[in-house]
Design goal:
single chain; alpha/beta; eight-stranded mixed beta sheet; 8 strands; elongated
């Protein structure tokens, strides 16, 4: 009888360990499996070079969301970016989304200037006023070859 109770304790311990690993994988991977605290907005840019899925979305220097997906809009022939914004952050249709770089050669992120006079954006709406990423390599090559 002791053998079975010892095996049961080990089995429960292994099961709890696996559940803890699964939970930490979801939390560290920033997957939203159990909660949906975000709504999705769309933005179209002429260039998203260096921007990655899960890149932060910031407003006033504070992270308010992340990039959910990046693709190509075949109708407008632009890069389409899905922004996942926290539900407690409300934006209006005169907001401006810009792709910025943290530091000189750092990672790309989306910065939102909120606006304030337009109507409130809802899930699936688009931010129409966007600014593409500045390509540092192009600027340097223009300067080096005297085209500035």
């Amino acid at each position: 009888m002791k053998k079975y109770s010892q095996e049961l304790v080990v089995g429960v311990f292994v099961l709890l360990g696996l559940l803890a690993v699964a939970y930490m994988s979801i939390k560290l991977g920033k997957l939203n499996v159990f909660t949906d605290d975000y709504y999705t907005l769309k933005a179209r840019f002429t260039d998203v070079t260096g921007l990655k899925v899960n890149a932060p979305v910031q407003m006033y220097g504070v992270e308010v969301g992340f990039v959910g997906a990046i693709g190509i809009d075949k109708q407008t022939r632009q890069a389409a970016v899905d922004l996942r914004i926290r539900k407690d952050i409300r934006l209006t249709d005169d907001a401006i989304a810009a792709i910025k770089t943290s530091g000189l050669i750092g990672d790309k992120y989306v910065r939102i200037a909120p606006g304030g006079l337009g109507s409130e954006l809802k899930t699936g709406d688009s931010i129409f006023d966007t600014q593409a990423a500045i390509d540092i390599e192009d600027l340097i090559s223009k300067y080096v070859f005297g085209k500035v």
